[in-house]
């Protein structure tokens, strides 16, 4: 058994020992709807019915499956959609720098080409909170609420970003050689619930792909550019409901989303 297969088997064993994963999590472990955003496709999954639609933006280098514990709770009330940014999850590889502005443009094309109807409440974690805000500021009123979880701010970028970039590049090098580098597993998050076998396998496969590490490294390498883009776009949100969540626990995030939904006109 090679190193990758052994790592995947260990992840599956650990996952099996955990409690039952959130309902519907398996749907997030693979490709669902592939939406063209201009010569490449992004993976998207929607569930539930109602308006406004709640859109989820994952943190830097992370896939839409991170929201598997929150998504079904929100879908009990309204339509809820997750997607994977370029190079991450089941989306096509990156073709340009992974900046906030480019991610925001991709989200705009995704919404248009998937025929999703406004209004939207956008939920973003970490780096994804910057993407969510950039899109909201450029969406001409399509976004009517924001939930920002452990939000990254353009004037307070992570102090360890250079170290994280170096680590991502090392993992990229290992993946290109068909190896699994030390510290190159898909990291856990408090946003997600228990990890079932299918998602554990998908995360293990993700961490073995050079395309994933290329996208993750590009987001890190482009942080200064992304910060400049946010500063240029930044303006008051006016009377739009904005909820900031300091700790990414599923119940806390879900409660914040429900509060913002309650404020929709």
UniProtKB/TrEMBL annotation:
GO terms assigned for molecular function: hydrolase activity
InterPro entries xref list: AB_hydrolase_1, AB_hydrolase_fold, Meta-cleavage_hydrolase
One Pfam family, short name: Abhydrolase_1
Top-rank taxon, per record: Bacteria
The AB hydrolase-1 domain, residue ranges: 64-163
Species of provenance: Rugamonas aquatica
SUPFAM superfamilies in alphabetical order: alpha/beta-Hydrolases
Gene3D superfamilies: alpha/beta hydrolase
Protein name, as recorded: Alpha/beta fold hydrolase
Signal peptide from the UniProt entry: 1-19
Coiled coil: none
Keywords: Hydrolase, Signal
PANTHER family: SI:DKEY-122A22.2
